[in-house]
Amino acid sequence: MRNIGNLISAAGFLLILLCSSCTSESDYAKTSILITSDIDSSFRSTLVQLMNEELGQRSIKSKVVIALALAGKKELNGLEIPYRAASDSPENISEGYRIFLDRENGENTLWIIGADKRGLLYGIGNFLRISGTGNNQIFLPAEIDIASAPAYPIRGHQLGYRNTANSWDTWTVRQYEQYIRELVLFGSNCIEDIPFQSDTQSVHMLIPHREMHIEISEICDKYDVDYWVWTPATGDLEEESVREAELKKHEEFYKSIPRLDAIFFPGGDPGDNHPSHVMPHLEELSKLLKKYHPDAGVWISLQGFDLEKINYFLDYLNTRSPDWLTGVVHGPGSPPVNLERKAIPDKYLHRLYGDITHTIRCQYPVENWDQAFALTLGREPTNPQPQYYARILRKDIPYSNGFLSYSDGVNDDVNKIIWNQVAWNPEKDVREIVVEYCRFFFGSDVAQEAADGILALEQNWIGPLIQNEGVNETLALWRKLESSFPGLSENWRWQQLVMRAYYDAYLRARLINEQELEKEANTILSHAEGLGPDAAMSKALAELEKADIIPVASDLREKIVSYCDTLFNSIGLQTSVPLYQASGYERGCILDFIDYPLNNRWWLADEFKKIQEMATEEEKIDRLEVIRSWSNPGPGQYYDNISSVSEGLRVISQTDDAIDYAWWDNGLSRKRLSTQLFQFSPILQYTALAANTDYLIRVSGYGEALIRANGTRLEPTLYNKELETFKEFILPKELITEGSLKITFDRPDEAHLNWRKYSKVTDLWLIPN
Hints:
It is a single chain. The protein folds into three domains: 4-148, Chitobiase, domain 2 (2-Layer Sandwich), CATH 3.30.379; 154-427, TIM Barrel; 633-769, Jelly Rolls (Sandwich). The protein contains 24 helices and 29 strands. The strands form seven sheets. Strands 17-16-15-14-13-12-11-18 form an eight-stranded parallel β-sheet. Strand 26 and strand 27 form a beta hairpin. It is globular.
C-alpha cells in the first residue's frame, strides 16, 4: 500500500532532485525529495530551498528518498496524521505531523507528512534533529514512526530589529531568515518585531529600520509563521495630537507590511497612560488593523499597572466585553500569572511574555548566582540555563495559551530552543532537548558530549564560585571538544559556549586570588595601632594592588578576548562599547568588566584617602577597625552580605541572589561590592543563639529599614539612611525563642518613587550586646 509508485500516483507528487555537493551526475539520484503537487508553488519553493540548504550544510548525499506531503484529512494512503487540540477549543487543531520510514520492496522512503504547512516544517525539523550524520550520509533508526502535535498553540520569540539589541542590529536579511527558519524547525510559530520604539539607526545597521521590518514580515509569511509587533505608546494619550500621531504612524506601518497577525501593547512598560485612555486608543487601532489585516488581533499586558489600573482594566473587560481585543499578555511586572488568568474572562486568550535573556534586575534572575558573576557578566551574557528555564515554563504555561518570549539577542539561544520544545511537549526530557540542539547545530559525533558541556555551564552558575570546583572540569571538557572538533570553530553557537567556559574559569581564578589578597590586607589593618595607621594603609594597599600587577590566568583571558572578537565577526555579538560599539554597557559587554575588581580594593583606596584626612590617630585607627572587621566580626557575632551566596548564609528569602544590582557609573562603581547588590525585604533565620543574651542588630543599606524580630517591630537607636552608614536596633533576649530568631523587613510605601530610590538592605550584623 505504501509503495512509492502507488503513492505518487494516488497523491500526486513532484520529484525534486537536491544535491549541494554532487561530484557526478549519478550523485543526483542519491538525494531526492518527493513533494506533493497540491502544495502551492511559493511554499514548494520554500521547501526546496530549506531542504537544499539544511542538507547542504551537513554535506549529505543519501540513498533515502524523502517524501514531503500535506494531509487534508486524517490519513493519507493509510498513514495517519496526528491532530491534537491546540487549545481548549476542539475545532482548533493544527500543526501536527507524522514521520514514517518505509523500507518495503527494498526501497528506503522517509515520509514527512504535515497536517498543514507548519506541521510539515515541524516534521522536517524533527527529522533533522533525530538524524545522525557522518561521511556525507544520513543515519536513521531501523524503525521510525513518529506522530506529534504541539501542546500549546503560541510558541515564539521577540527578535526586534533595534539598536539596543546585542547582536541582530548587525544582521542581514539572510541572517534573519536563517535564524527564524531554525526557530521554526524547533517549533516556533510566531516572531515578534519592534517597529516603533526608535528610528535611531544603529552604527551597525546595514538596512534601514523600515525596510528590515518589511523583510522580517515577508520571511514570516514565507515560512507561514505569525508576525507580531510590540507597540508601546510613551506619549500622553489624553492629548489628541498624540493619539492622532500614533494612529497615523500605525496606519502607515500596517499598509507597508505584507503580513501582520497581532499587535501587542505593553501596558505601562514603557509608558504612564491609564487604561481609560489606552483602551479607546486600542479600539481605534483595531479598526485600522482590520482594514489592512482583517484576521490580525490586538493584545495588551498589565505590565506597570498599579492596583487601581488593574481593577479598572478588569472591570472594563467584564462590563464591556470588547470583541476587538484578542488576549492579555503576562510579562515582567504583571500580576501573578495564575491570578491574572483567573481574573480575565474566558473569551480572551492569554500569552506569556517571559524574559529569557536577562540574568539580574529581571523577571527570572539567576538563582544562587555568585556576586562575582553579577558584577562582571551583567544582564545579557551568554546564559544557557536549560533546566532552570524548563522549570519556569512548566510552572507558568498551564495558565496560558503559550508564550512569545522577550529576547534581546543571541545570548539566550539555548533557552529559546528549550521553551520551544517544552511548549510543544512539556514532558520532554531536558537533556534530550539539549542533545537534539547539539546534533542539529554541531553534528551527531559531538552531540552527547556538547550537551553535557551545556548542562555543565548551567551548573557553573549555581552557588559560591570559589567552592565550585566543577568550573574547571567544565573548562576541561570544552577544551577537549574545542581541540577535537576544529571544524566547529566558525560556528557562532559553538563559539559562545566555549567562550563561556573560559570566562567562568577565568573569573574563578581571579576571585580566589583577589579574595586572598583582601584577607591579607585586612590582617595588615588589624595591626594598624602598632604599625601606625598611615603605614598600615600603605602596606595594605600595596598588597591589594598585586591583583593588577601580577594578574592570574592570563592565558584564559586571552582566549576570552579572542572569542569575543570572533563572535562579533561571526554573528555581530557586541561584547564591548569601545571595541564593538554596543549600545550600552548592560548589553552583554563582558569585555568591559573582564577585569573589574572582585575584592574591595577600589573602595578601600577611596576610604584610605578619607582616613588620611582625619585629625587624630585614634580616629584613623577606629575607622580602620570598622573597615577591617566589616565582613569579619568577632567571636559570637554574625555578618550577612544580603545578596551573596557565600557571605549570606542566614539569608533565606526567596528573592534570588543578586536580583537587584544598583548599576552605578555604568557598572564601574567604586562602592563596596556588598553595597552594589541588595534586596528590598530580605528574610534571615538564626538558630542556636546564645541564651539569656541581648543583641544589637546593625543594618547597612539605603533609606528605611522597617525591621521585625520574630514578628515584633523594633525601634532604632541609630538611624542613618545613606549608603554605607548604619542603623542600629536593640534586640532584647525575650524576643528570641529557644535560640531561634527570624528577621524580616516590612516594605515602606514608596510607590511615588522611582524604583532606584526604593529602600534597600545590603548588609546585616547580629552582635551580642
